[in-house]
Amino acid sequence: MSEHDYMRPWEPTVAALDWQMELLFKHFSPLSLPEALSKIGSRSLPERAVCVTFDDGYANNFELALPVLKRWRIPATVYVATDFLNGGRMWNDSVIEAIRVAEGPDFDLREIGLDTYDIGGFEMRKAAAVMIIREIKHWPPEKRAHAVMVIESMVGALPDNLMMTDDQVRQLSSEGVEVGAHTKSHPILATLDTEQSRDEIVGSKTYLENLLKKPVRHFAYPNGRPGIDYTFEHRDIVESAGFESAASTQWGAVSRLSDKWQLPRFTPWDRTPLRFMTRLLLNYRNPG
Ligand SMILES: [Zn+2]
């Protein structure tokens, strides 16, 4: 975000991303994912090696993050959920954006089995969106889609420019960013049958390869918790689809003992450079 957004306080501003990338540039060894994987294989990974990744395919990765990555020469991987490109919206963003513009002071969702939420102030709006998302996140897909449709129908038009366009993905790739796949519609894979899972995983790879005219070799699991959001079955589909790596959201640092199709990751959350750096350094001791 260019400025702090009260509806998304967990997202770094451009200024925060800038000091984070400066810190990586000055004190770490940023590598592209393919380079890091190859160096792990040949046991030549430098000290404090780090790969930067972004999930989902937000337009702000292109509009706001890319200039910062270029300024500090930080290689990055962006994992794209392909169904939302060109004007789509992830369901959680529909909730956030609907609550942002809803008329207050209350938002009554009792007809879909939720509460009436106080949206009288900025802080209350954010809290309401977080509560609703947390509540419906694990509902069955159709039930959740219906709830989101009801929520959207209660407010005016919502933004259709949150995710990248095909052209932005192409430009990102031509700027040297590694574009990876992240399924088509960002489902919790563990809730799907084998055929649906394969279609989601392979379909996103095929879409991006047609778009970029080059192989897409890296994947990230939606939500990404091993054994909860995806299983060994999905890991095997990903490997047999021809991906060379897949990222989970299990916290930890990759080592040569890591499963390449279940790479751990880490999100340091601190708001000051010293704490941010300390937490990043501690993470190297966590095998994930
Ligand atoms: Zn995601």
What does this protein structure show overall?
The protein is of the alpha/beta class. It folds into two domains: 14-87 and 162-283, TIM Barrel, CATH 3.20.20.370; 91-153, no CATH class. Helix content is 43%, strand content 13%. It contains ten helices and ten strands. The chain has helices at 14-27, 33-41, 59-71, 91-101, 122-136, 141-153, 166-174, 194-212, 232-240, 273-283; strands at residues 29-30, 49-50, 52-56, 76-80, 106-108, 116-118, 178-181, 218-220, 245-251, 263-265. The strands form four sheets. It has a three-stranded parallel sheet. The mean pLDDT is 96. Zinc ion binds next to β3. Zinc ion (ZN) binds at residues 55-56, 182, 186, 222.
Shape: globular
Distance between the termini: 29 Å
The structure class reads: alpha/beta
- CATH fourth-tier homologous superfamily of the largest domain: Glycoside hydrolase/deacetylase
Low-confidence stretches: none
Round the mean pLDDT to the nearest integer and report it.
Answer: 96
> H/E element string?
HEHEEHEHEEHHHEHEHEEH
CATH structural fold name of the largest domain: TIM Barrel
Sequence-ordered SSE layout with sheet pairings:
Blueprint: H1 14-27, E1 29-30, H2 33-41, E2 49-50, E3 52-56, H3 59-71, E4 76-80, H4 91-101, E5 106-108, E6 116-118, H5 122-136, H6 141-153, H7 166-174, E7 178-181, H8 194-212, E8 218-220, H9 232-240, E9 245-251, E10 263-265, H10 273-283
Helix pairs in contact: 1-3, 4-5, 4-6, 8-9
